[in-house]
Amino acid sequence: MLRDVRDDGTALDVVGIGNALVDVLSHEADDFVATHDLVKGAMTLIEPDRATQLYEAMGPGIEVSGGSAANTIAGVASFGGRAAYLGKVHDDQLGVVFAHDMRANGVVFRSPPATDGPPTGRCLIIVTPDAERTLNTYLGASAYFSPGDVDAELIELSRYTFLEGYLFDRPEAKAAYRTASEIAHGAGRKVALTLSDTFCVERHIDEWRPLVADQVDVLFANDAELRALYGIHLDHAVDRARDEVETTCVTLGPEGSLIVTSEGIVEVPPHPVEVVDTTGAGDLYAAGVLHGMAKGLPLAECGRLGSIAASAVIGHTGARPGQSLAQLA
Amino acid sequence: MLRDVRDDGTALDVVGIGNALVDVLSHEADDFVATHDLVKGAMTLIEPDRATQLYEAMGPGIEVSGGSAANTIAGVASFGGRAAYLGKVHDDQLGVVFAHDMRANGVVFRSPPATDGPPTGRCLIIVTPDAERTLNTYLGASAYFSPGDVDAELIELSRYTFLEGYLFDRPEAKAAYRTASEIAHGAGRKVALTLSDTFCVERHIDEWRPLVADQVDVLFANDAELRALYGIHLDHAVDRARDEVETTCVTLGPEGSLIVTSEGIVEVPPHPVEVVDTTGAGDLYAAGVLHGMAKGLPLAECGRLGSIAASAVIGHTGARPGQSLAQLA
Inter-chain contact B97–A320, Cβ cutoff 8 Å? Predict the structure, then answer.
């Protein structure tokens, strides 16, 4: 795939960088969230002891490869896009599962696994009857992704470099983020960012406002995250995003999404689906939009692909599509 | 649970013994089966190299605790029955997943994990568009279950000891089977066996005919397995089972099942469901029937519980129910 270089010097559509995690999902009653002091709907970082304790309390689980940007990249590949991923797993059973699933999706994944340090990271996901997911992440090996792990060749070969906001939760990953962004822009490529999580935005608000304005070409956020970034009503947040970012995609849950540029606002309808588990909905929306943008499609069509991809994971348990997105598109 | 001994001296309804496996499932097109020389619908034992090769060829997977008897036992517990399981995992990440999921189902699982030898076993499951599952099992640590691992206390405390035919594929596990059967009968308990797989029956046909006649009180088989055991038409196989076994449960796929005793034949209708993946259907049918029998319910009611439990796993990917069977019953 990498040798098939196109006229613009790229061989890839999107390369993603993020925390490489395996998801452990269980469906629980509403009171589980309160009993275990979870922050419903959010992503909370947890330490190993807490992870062990919470896992013991969870019901029988299913294990599926996850990680926000990794889900997006798997989605791009499922659409038939050319995609690569950078992230760190350990050389253990869950690391093998993560790497297998990326490559089985057709994703270029050549980050070497760590042979010392903590095990492969995992995200303990509680899905409540309202289909909301509550994320509890033990970063494990993924937290040790550092600037030295940034694969400059893949970034230079990609039309878009896609970064997840969760990277900002660790200094080394944050440094890697900046390195990747500089390489991408230095090669004349675009940088896309997802804000990931409202609390994540609030944890890093002072760094993020200038970073988004200066370094981000395509911004993904849900309405709460965008308001967390700009601290005002959605209308005003959208106006501000339009001033500062080339393209901003705002997801609105069951109401669809908006794609905002200096040209105007494209309203994207949702793709109807019976909601089972919203895990990965935002990740897959980004997959559809980025796949479309990398192909140079009109924004309304990019949004349509985003809605289709999101619906493909909302209808089942887990954050990766169970069928080829290319066939659904 | 074990201290709550009932009038008949039991504290458990069912204890299961089998190969402790984690399933890795992927949906594949029909030609995958031919391309990789798989035996469609059957369980084939594979060595580590073959497992690695096949896994590399498989698409993105989901990992869920499996193992035939383990699925049955998880089902009994999901009905609210008192259940225990004996089987061997390694002290590794997949072993932790298996043990967690058993205990999270409310199953007594106290078999210590192996700290040397091969890793936790896994079953690579290919689900084709017709919802048929093709099993490729790398036994790993599970193959080292031996007579010394038979927990006599749990067997003596259980109304039923449930054994999977797959145990016969390894000499040590076969010896453990005989030990468990003797302990159960010595304590005045019943022994149940599932024939597991047509090829498995054929591999051990000479040992199985006398063993079923002498040591099995409740036999589970699908129609092909029962015919493999008795080598004749289904009607004749049923007659012969009736002569040799106290209770024989014959599953007939979408046509439901038969429960055969010297008193007659109970015809059990299937529970309607949209078929997604038949993995675990037979295992869960056995769960419902055994749960009912341990409660002393009429055979027609036992069969109804079997049909409900089977339908609960046929409708999704994976062999364990996603919701409480007690609520469906």
Answer: no
